[in-house]
Amino acid sequence: MRSLLPCRTLMPPPDSPLELRQMPHHRSGTNPADPIDTPAEDMLAAESGQATMEQLEILQAPLLVRIDWLIHGFSTRKGGRSMIYSQSPTGGELNLGFTNSDDASTVVANRKDFLEALTGNPGFPLVTLRQVHSSTVVQVEAPPAAASTSGFAEADGMMTDQPGILLGIQTADCIPVLVADRKRRAVAGFHAGWRGTVKRIVEQGLERMRSEFRSSPEDLVAVIGPGIGACCYEVGNEVEDEFMVQCPYAAELFLRVGSAELNTKKHPHLDLVEANRRQLLGAGLDLEAIAVVQQCTSCNTDRFFSYRAERGTTGRMLSVIGIRPC
Ligand SMILES: [Zn+2]
User: Fold this and answer.
1) Rounded to an integer, what distance in angstroms lies between the CA atom of residue 208 and that of residue 185?
2) Integer-rounded Cα radius of gyration of the chain
3) Alpha carbon 316 to chain centroid distance?
4) Mean pLDDT of all residues in 111-125
């Protein structure tokens, strides 16, 4: 099976940490458009209006694409075979999580489609977790024996220095964070909702990378994937209180949204992306070594699953990172 994105054909992308690549995948067998050197804005424009139920979309950050031994991608809800969450009567969607409402065999098929589009191999070893909003990070030392629906461990972060394994973080509003050590050839993925963020899962994960792989902050690059933005993430005062206790910079992570004129109460809105960016910076990463996918899942339910916007009944995206097989 042909890979859509062989590393040898990639050109160094512009030095914009915010640019995204799209990898449309046509299951029907038509030739996919070559996304390699197309600016993100052009790709977005070209894609709109053309999306069909046949088209699967994977977002990539140039910061990670330029590392030739690395595989990574952020799925969207576009393409796929799930009908249960679809807002369109004609379009299947790419639910990649074993949710209560979707059929497990459909999710298995979606995962195969996703892996094939990304790697050329529908059976590429994929490890996922039973995510519980913890700060637990596990090390993956070997590929799973077989595709699993139950998850590798109860944890919210994982890391590996072994080739041929994709680490997959499942989200639908929470923030996925992918990290690569350019020098030691190690990778990690983290699931950061507010609970994991206030427990500093990313900081703790980078510390684990230091102790297990001797990773130095100057060799690390990170991408913060699509998640709910401060625009939509209203939280209770108790969440703000907890951040105030745990983070010296907590005041910078909250917006107050409301209007005295309209007589609406001002509620705190949490900027989870900034909270995780601050953890990466605090761990010693350079500003330029961090890319942010600036897309709010809750504002963009045509593209992303959003637990909050869809009131808990929605699918899951996968954010994956791994080392190419030897
Ligand atoms: Zn939003």
Assistant:
1) 15
2) 19
3) 10
4) 96
Residue type, 64: L
Helix axes 272-282, 201-213, angle to 10 degrees: 30
Residue 208: CB partners within 8 Å, gap ≥ 6? 137, 139, 157, 159, 188
Residue 43 Cα to ligand 1 middle (Å): 22
> How many Å lie between the centroid of ligand 1 and the Cα of residue 231?
4
Task: Quote the percentage of the chain above a pLDDT of 90.
Answer: 73
Task: Please give the distance, rounded to the nearest whole angstrom, from the Cα atom of residue 227 to the centre of ligand 1.
Answer: 9
Distance 225 CA to ligand 1 centre (A): 14
Residue 47 reports pLDDT greater than 80 = no
pLDDT at 122 over 60: yes
Length of the chain, in residues? 326
Each residue's pLDDT tens digit, 247-267 = 999 999 999 876 666 566 678
Contact 312, 59 (CB under 8 A): no
pLDDT (tens digit per residue) in 277-298: 999 999 999 999 999 998 999 9
Contact indicator for 55, 77 with CB cutoff of 8 Å? no
> Separation of 230 CA from ligand 1 center, angstroms?
7
What ranges in the chain are assigned the alpha helix state H? 40-47, 62-65, 104-119, 194-198, 201-213, 237-246, 272-282
Instruction: For residue 147, give Cα distances in angstroms to 15, 96, 165, 219.
Output: 37, 13, 12, 32
> DSSP 3-state assignment of 218?
helix
Identify the structural domains of the chain with CATH numbers, from first to last. Answer: 47-215+300-323 (3.60.140.10)
